[in-house]
Please model this.
Amino acid sequence: MTIQSYETKAEVAINFSKYLVSFIASKENVNIALSGGSTPKIVFDTLAASFKTAINWNKVHLYWGDERCVAPTDDESNYKMTVTHLLSKIDIPKENVHRVKGENNPEYEANRYAEILERNLPIVHGIPQFDLVILGMGDDGHTASIFPQEINLWNVSENCVVATHPDSGQRRISITGQVINNAHTVTFLVTGAGKAEKFNEIHTKSGDYASYPASLVEPKSERLIWFADKSATGVISA
Model:
């Protein structure tokens, strides 16, 4: 595990973007699972503004680690956010964008998206393998859309599941722990003081850390990088 800690969210976005440019350049074709949330939004803006011509988007295939069960035009859609802040501003082939269809029946869509992953990604250890999975972490320690009250979904045998937000009851499609931990590389994007308590419990293995799905991110490859700002890392230094 590596922790890259920066002073501000903007510095996190710039340095992650530089990392992503280098990561993509090192590979012939790249399959990436994107995250929603406020920090990826800043990263997407940075990529579009400063790095879009530094990446050969023809060799990049984009997927989503989770999606809300809403239409792609809904303001809560991770796909819509990505279109607004990145996809509409870069030259990526339409066929390279593999969205979760949040407007579908949730159970049907979880199965459909699992089949997409199985068909498109290399199968390693019997599981589809992303080159890169980008994750966020909620204030409650959730990641992707695996929440603490449904932490059992992390270890299921399916590649995609239907999860439920604990407060709103909103249903979501999420990749599972076996897909996340099978990735070649996993990165976290974590910013803001609201993340500091969970961040430190996970990294010091203290408190209720074992109840947080984010603590279960342990890729087989041992390539795990946290990109965070000082507000989120709290007492943890880079």
Observations:
- The two ends are 12 Å apart (CA to CA).
- Helices lie at 9-25, 38-51, 78-85, 106-120, 177-180, 196-204, 230-233.
- The chain has a mean pLDDT of 96.
